[in-house]
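User: Show me a protein chain along with its predicted structure.
Assistant: Here is one chain, sequence first, then structure tokens.
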Amino acid sequence: MIASGLPLNDAEVQDFIRATLAEDLGERGDVTSRFVVPETARLKAVMAAREPMVVSGLPLAEGFFRTLDPDCGIELKAHDGDRVAAGAELMVVTGAARALLTAERSALNTVQHLSGIATLTRKYVDAIEGTGAVLLDTRKTIPGLRLLEKYATRCGGAQNHRLRLDDGILIKDNHIAIVGSIEAAVQAALANRTVLQVQVEVDSLDQIEPALAAGAERLLLDNMDPPTLRKAVALVAGRVPLEASGGVTLENIRAIAETGVNYISVGRITQSAPAVDIGLDFLAA
């Protein structure tokens, strides 16, 4: 099963692979490989890391190669979630040269993007190691790729926050502005929810007690600096979990974690992660 370990089932993986290949192949296919490479030519190549990274997306790369050459041989040298050094082999693939060359860019693009997210995520996780704070991702993802990008953050050591709008209640400033007050927003959520936790975003200390008094079960402390976060932690005194969010960088996340918040959510790990450098290189027989 290609989808083993991924947040997609086999049918969803195949849909993703087909759509990605269709985007790359166009109407006439890989004309370069078809015109230049003999039909019977064979290729053995290694996918290798060209910089240190955390790996994510190898099952999808395998899926691209097997879709165009079902009989290809694939030897995995690493697995999703592994930290590898520059030069590390990730996969060796052997098969029909035309098919493997046609699949190459789609396979590499996917692994480079997801591994980039996993790699940046691990840097943030390492930065708060030992503080007790947990790194969360956000919904700041490329449309259509959320499941895979959130999978990549898990490969890097983060936990997933809300996957969709229907799996958590998060009352933000615009919700509060529309209904008129934190109390009204929280009470409406509590009156309509079933098992969903009610979380409230607050951007000042004076919003904390009204939110808790109304029944908020978790607070998101938005764009607060470390001294303000410490005051918020002391004020809440463990009554509900606290999540810090907004303006979090590798340079300040340790200071934020040391304030005592339970969670830190970071949009940058999906929104701004650069792709890592991975190559597919010919191996002489």
